[in-house]
Specification:
about 110 residues, mainly beta, seven-stranded mixed sheet, four-stranded antiparallel sheet, globular
Length: about 110
């Protein structure tokens, strides 16, 4: 199970920190990612952090977003700074290991201009 939290309404230039609490699987064995779906758009990968700790980011969020994981708490976080209206979306947490793929229900982030 993956449960996202931390979404909300923020003005452009502001910050939010998303959290994803997980349970039911061996968290530290999985690659974890944040995805988002903006209104009327396809699902987009935002950031991933693999088991080794290596992080990757979409070009659109590089330098503004930071993904981190706490294996002791089975949790992953997304620190989002300098938010823009185009960051408005439902953000989903994903855990992936070979053929296994788990998703949360998402948390809505709305950035006003």
């Amino acid at each position: 199970q993956l449960v996202e939290s931390g979404g909300g309404l923020v003005q452009a230039g502001g910050s939010l920190r998303l959290s994803c609490a997980t349970s039911g699987f061996r968290f530290n064995a999985y690659d974890i990612g944040w995805f988002r779906r903006a209104p009327g758009k396809a699902l987009e990968g935002v950031a991933t952090i693999i088991r080794s700790g290596t992080m990757n980011y979409a070009e659109s969020v590089k330098g503004r977003f930071t993904i981190s994981r706490d294996n002791a708490k089975d949790s992953v976080y997304l620190q989002m700074n300098s938010l823009k209206p185009e960051d408005t979306a439902v953000y989903y947490c994903n855990a992936r290991l070979l053929g296994l793929n788990y998703w949360g229900k998402g948390t809505l982030v709305t950035v006003s201009s």
